[in-house]
Write a structure and sequence with these properties.
This protein is mainly alpha-helical. It contains five helices and two strands, in the order E-H-H-H-H-H-E.
Length: 71
């Protein structure tokens, strides 16, 4: 996919805010840096499966709620 992941729909920022979490709070729970969360939200970085699962668990949602391929 390269560095620009426009083909991956990303709902992380919306779900994080809906959960009332800052990037820092989410990063602590997901055991990554705040910069990683920011990079994911901005479509610069696609997380590993393990990280995506940790984020989904923290936000109490499915990975498919966070990320999806366009139709």
């Amino acid at each position: 996919m390269g560095k620009d992941h426009k083909k991956l729909l990303n709902n992380l920022e919306q779900l994080r805010k809906a959960a009332g979490l800052t990037q820092q709070e989410l990063s602590v729970n997901a055991e990554v840096s705040r910069k990683s969360i920011n990079a994911i939200e901005n479509g610069i970085y696609v997380p590993s499966t393990v990280l995506a699962l940790k984020i989904a668990k923290t936000l109490k949602c499915k990975v498919e709620d966070l990320f999806e391929l366009p139709q």
